[in-house]
Design a protein that fits this description.
It contains 13 helices and 7 strands. Strands 3-2-1-4-5-7-6 form a 7-stranded mixed sheet, with helices on both faces. The termini are far apart. α7 packs across α10. By secondary structure, it is of the alpha/beta class.
Length: 290
C-alpha cells in the first residue's frame, strides 16, 4: 500500500485562496488529492477541476473525491486554458500548483524516480510518453548531458559526471537507478546528508518531463482564466522553479494582469517540517488577478 502524499502548507494555501462557496477552482497538480479534498471540505458547494498526467494518481483522486463536484483530467497544466474552456468554464476563482514529487511516484515500483532503488531508469510522470531517463543517459551526447545536469540540477560537477556516464555506456548500457547512482558516487565524494546523485536525478526528471517549460506555460495560461480577485498559489521546491514563479509573477504584474500578494515567499513552520521533512525546501508564492 502506497502512502498518500501529505499536502504541504495546507492551511496556508487554503487561506491564501480566499475561498468562496460556489467557486470554481483548479488544482493543476492533483496527485492523490490532498489539497483538493481539503479545499472541497472547506467549500463543498464549489467545483474543482483537477489536472494530472499520472493515471495511478488520478485513480486514487477519483475515489477520494467521488462525493464532490469535480472534473478530473489526464492533462498537463501547461494546457490549462484550453482544457478549462472545453469543460465550458470561461474563468476560475483560484489555481493551485504544488510542484513537488509525490510519495506515490517515489514509492510506486518501477517508476525510476529514486536513486535509492534498483529499478529501471524511467522518471516519466506520463507513462505514455516515449522519452525516459534511460534514453537520455544512454543516447545523449556528453555535452548535452552536461548541459542538462548543470541547467536543471545546478550540478557543479556536471562535466565530470557526463564524461563518466559516456565512458561507462561504451561498454554496457546504464539501465537502472542504482547503476547511475553508483557512477555518480564514484565521481563525487559524499559530503553531509545529501546524496551525491540528488542534483543529477532532479535534472534528469525535469528534462524527461519538460517541467520548467510546462511551468512557464501554465502560469501564463492560468492567469488568463483567473477571474478578477482570483488567487494563484504555487508551491515550489528548488531554486529553478521558484525563480520561474517569481519572475513570471513579476512579468505579469508589469503587464497589469497580476498583483503580487507575497512579496517574500511563505515557508513551512518548524512543526510542519518536523512532521514532514520533505516540506523543508517548500516556498509558496501567491498572486491575485487584477
Amino acid at each position: 500500500m502506497v502512502a498518500l502524499h501529505v499536502p504541504v502548507m495546507l492551511e496556508e494555501v487554503l487561506e491564501a485562496l480566499n475561498l468562496k462557496d460556489h467557486g470554481v477552482y483548479v488544482d493543476g497538480t492533483l496527485g492523490t488529492a490532498g489539497h483538493a479534498e481539503a479545499l472541497l471540505k472547506r467549500v463543498p458547494k464549489s467545483t474543482l477541476i483537477g489536472f494530472d498526467i499520472d493515471e495511478e494518481a488520478l485513480k486514487i483522486a477519483r475515489e477520494r473525491l467521488k462525493d464532490y463536484r469535480v472534473h478530473l483530467l489526464r492533462e498537463n497544466f501547461s494546457n490549462i486554458k484550453a482544457a478549462v474552456a472545453e469543460l465550458g468554464y470561461k474563468e476560475v476563482n483560484g489555481i493551485i500548483f504544488d510542484l513537488g514529487l509525490s510519495m506515490l511516484q517515489l514509492q510506486s515500483p518501477g517508476r525510476g524516480f529514486s536513486f535509492l532503488k534498483d529499478e529501471p531508469l524511467d522518471m516519466r510522470m506520463d507513462i505514455k510518453q516515449e522519452l525516459t531517463a534511460m534514453k537520455i543517459v544512454n543516447t545523449y551526447s556528453e555535452s548535452e548531458l552536461s548541459k542538462i545536469l548543470w541547467q536543471y540540477g545546478e550540478e557543479r560537477f556536471s562535466r565530470k559526471i557526463a564524461r563518466a556516464i559516456v565512458n561507462i555506456r561504451r561498454t554496457m548500457p546504464i539501465r537502472t537507478c542504482r547503476d547511475l547512482a553508483s557512477i555518480i558516487e564514484r565521481v563525487i565524494k559524499r559530503r553531509g546528508r545529501i546524496h551525491p546523485a540528488t542534483r543529477s536525478f532532479q535534472a534528469l526528471r525535469i528534462a524527461v518531463n519538460r517541467e520548467l517549460e510546462a511551468l512557464t506555460e501554465g502560469i501564463d495560461e492560468g492567469t488568463q482564466i483567473l477571474s478578477r480577485g482570483g488567487r494563484f498559489c504555487i508551491i515550489s521546491y528548488h531554486s529553478l522553479e521558484d525563480r520561474i514563479v517569481k519572475n513570471s509573477y513579476k512579468k505579469l504584474a508589469s503587464q497589469g494582469l497580476l498583483s503580487i500578494v507575497t512579496k517574500k515567499p511563505i515557508v513551512p513552520g518548524r512543526e510542519e517540517v518536523i512532521r514532514n521533512p520533505s516540506a523543508r525546501s517548500a516556498k509558496l508564492r501567491v498572486a491575485e488577478r487584477l
